[in-house]
Structure formats: structure tokens, C-alpha cells
């Protein structure tokens, strides 16, 4: 009796910044196919090919991560679309939004050209992204993705668990996040949900704490930004620690309001 074929969703992640740059669907050794053909130079997705070559030339490597498996190919296609939506099509090297075709199908050159043109013309940043603010996901879809994310991307299952960013990577991430502001609506939501809203610390405890401490690496403005970024989701203690150049335990204490209390 032939062995049942198992399909899966996989992520290609840069070891330099821990960012997901491609979401794919396949079986067997499909997720390793991209690197081989990028090096050869015959990958049909030139954007992905260039990304892989640049990653390698900068001393990085591809981190491979399976996040969903099933013998039901239709279900895997559905999860592929959800995964691409979650990470943001505009942030990936994917040519399409996923869920198309079937195993063994090869797009024509004309079709590939059209998909590339569509991807280049699409301006899906911020509020232009149809999934901005939650998009049109059903509650069932949200729960499914949330469940498999908890099972596959948290703690030791996270591909970056136990690793540290290089100084240059931290500098790039810091520069990327510098100057970003939240909408008034987001600020209001975070303020309303703050566990310690309305509570104040005694004056004597503030004398050598926070910005008054000459050894402090952070400012009150950065502390608020850290709490906002964590509240919005998508960033772990370790990732925030790498961005702001502190230990992850410091981030944990900030989020739990053990230090830098307001």
C-alpha cells in the first residue's frame, strides 16, 4: 500500500534578522528546492531568487520552518492563504496570495509574468492592505491560525529561540522602527487596557529609577514604545530585547510593569 502523501506549509526565514520572507506549500523536500535553483539562477521567482542570493552573500542562511501539515491538500492551500495574509503579502517574496493550483501544476511564462506585474503594482502597505486592522477574516479563521501559531511559533518552537541578533542586525531593526508612530485609536486602546492605569508610585521610589538612573539604557519614550509594540502582538520578549539592545528579562519586567512603572 503506497504511503500517504503529507502536504505542509513552510516558512523561509532570514537568519540575519529573523524575518519571514517567503511562505510556501509543498511536500517531501520542496522547501529546500528554492535555495538550489536560486544558486543555479533558474528560479522562476526572480524576487525570491535575489533575496536568497543576497542573504547568502551577506553571510546569512535560510531557516526552514514547517508550521502546518495535513494529507488534505485543499486544507493546506487554505492555510497557505491564511499564513500569507498573516505575515502580509507586501512583506513577502511570494508572487501570489497562495491557495492556487494543484500539485504538479506549472505556470506558463505568460502567467508568471502577469503575477509579477500584479505584485509590483500592488501597494498593500498600512491601511492599503485589505487585512489592515484584522481585515475580513472570519472568527473561525482567526482561531485556526492563532492555534497553530501557538503550537508552532512560541517558545522553543520559534526558529530564533535561544539566538541573538548581531549588532548590525539590531542597528538595522532599530533604524527601521525609529520614528514610527501609532494612530490615536491604537494609543487609546492600549491606554484603556493598561493594567496599572490610574496607579502611581511613591515619589521616593522614583529618585534613582528610570531616566534618573545614570546607567539607564532606555528612556521613558522607548519604554512606552516597547509596551505598545508588545501589546500589538508579533514581537516576543527576545525580539524586543534584540531591537532595543537589552536583556530579554528586562523586557519581561517592563511588560509586567515590575520596572519603569508609570
Give a quick precis of the structure.
The protein is mainly alpha-helical and 262 residues long. It has helices spanning 33-40, 46-57, 73-87, 109-121, 139-152, 167-177, 184-192, 220-232, 237-244, 248-255; strands spanning 7-14, 20-27, 62-70.
Walk me through this protein's architecture:
- The protein has 262 residues and is mainly α.
- The protein is built from ten helices and three strands, in the order ββααβαααααααα.
- A three-stranded antiparallel β-sheet has the order 2-1-3.
- Strand 1 and strand 2 form a beta hairpin.
- Helix 1 packs across helix 2 and helix 9 packs across helix 10.
- The longest helix has 15 residues.
- The termini are far apart.
What's the number of extended β-strand segments? 3
Content-based structural category: mainly alpha
What kind of sheet is the major sheet? 3 strands, antiparallel
- Cα distance, first to last residue? 65 Å
Compute the average pLDDT.
76
* H/E topology pattern: EEHHEHHHHHHHH
Fraction of residues in β-strands: 5-15%
Helix percent reads 40-55%
Unreliable segments (pLDDT under 50, ≥5 consecutive)? Answer: 204-208
Oligomer: single chain
Count of helix runs: 10
> Looking at the structure, what is the overall shape?
globular
Strand order within the widest beta sheet: 2-1-3
Work out the radius of gyration: 21 Å
List descriptors.
262 residues, mainly alpha, 10% strand
Task: Give the SSE layout.
Layout: E1 7-14, E2 20-27, H1 33-40, H2 46-57, E3 62-70, H3 73-87, H4 109-121, H5 139-152, H6 167-177, H7 184-192, H8 220-232, H9 237-244, H10 248-255
Antiparallel strand pairs: 1-2, 1-3
Helix pairs in contact: 1-2, 9-10
